[in-house]
Amino acid sequence: MATLRLGDTAPDFTADSSVGTINFYDYLGDSWGILFSHPADFTPVCTTELGTAAKFKDEFDKRNVKMLALSVDGAASHAEWIKDINEVQETTVNFPIIADEDKKVSDLYDMIHPKANSTLTVRSVFIIAPDKTVKLTLTYPASTGRNFYELLRVVDSLQLTANHKVATPANWENGQKVVVSPAISTADAKEIFKKGVEEIKPYLRMTPDPSV
Ligand code: BEZ
Question: Which residue lies with its CA nearest to atom 1 of ligand 1?
Fold first, then answer.
C-alpha cells in the first residue's frame, strides 16, 4: 500500500481484535475515527499510551470520535496485556485493539517502516472524518509516546475547520481566537463573522471562535 495522504479514503478492513472481529467502516459508522498503532504487546511505552487513551475516551466520545488501537500480536496476547494495562494504569481499556498478527492492517496503512523496524509498527495515527477521508496523519518512532492532549487538540481543530471558513494558529486551544481563511476577503469575513474581525495584516485576520 502506498502511503496514505490527506484527503485519501481510509481503506476498509475486517480484522480480529480484543473484542472479536471488527469491520472498520461498520465500527466507525457515521462517527469520526482515530486509528493508532502500537509496536507490540507488553512494551512499556505502549502500556502507558493505552492506559492514557482509556482515560481520554470520554473526551473522544464528546467529540464523536471512535477510538481503535492496533498491535501486531494476537487477541489472546492482547487479553493478557490488557489485564496488565488496567492494573498498572488504574483504568479499564474501553476500546478495541486490533490483533494484527498477519500485519494485514499494518501493511494496508503503511505502519511498518522497515528502516525503523522491519517487523513492528511505528506509532502511526490516522484521524478519519465521517466521510472516511483521512484528515490527519502522524508518525512517531517507537521510542516516543504520543501526547493525547495534542490528539484532542487536533480533533478540535479538524472539526472546527470542517464547519467554518477558519484555520487554527500555532498552539491554538479550543475556544481561542482563530485565523480567517486566506480564501476570504476581509470585507466578506466581516459579513460572515459577526463577532468581529481583527485585521493585523491583510493576510492575517483573527476572529473569535465562530462555533461558540
Ligand atoms: C514501547 O512501547 O515501550 C516500545 C516498543 C518498541 C520499541 C521501544 C519501545
Answer: 45
Which one of 46, 73, 122 would you pick to mutate in the ligand 1 pocket, going by the greatest count of ligand atoms within 8 A of its CB? 46
Contact 204, 179 (CB under 8 A): yes
Residues near 40 by beta carbon (within 8 Å), at least 6 away in sequence = 46, 71, 72, 73, 120
| 64 alpha carbon – ligand 1 mean position (Å) | 29
Q: What is the pTM of this model?
A: 0.96
pLDDT at 200: 97
pLDDT (tens digit, 9 = 90+) per residue, 149-159? 999 999 999 99
In eight-state DSSP terms, residue 9 is B
pLDDT digits 0-9 by tens, 163-198: 999 999 999 999 999 999 999 999 999 999 999 999
pLDDT at 134: 98
Neighbours of 42 (CB within 10 A): 13
Find where cell 478492513 sits.
Answer: 13
Centre of ligand 1 to C-alpha 63, Å, is: 29
Write down the H helix ranges in 21-144. 24-28, 44-55, 57-62, 75-89, 104-108
pLDDT tier, 1 (very low <50, low <70, confident <90, very high otherwise): low
Q: What integer best gives the mean pLDDT of the chain?
A: 97
Residue of 38, 113, 117, 143 to mutate, ligand 1, most atoms within 8 A of C-beta: 143
Active-site positions read 46
Q: Is 82 in the pocket of ligand 1 (CB under 6 A)?
A: no
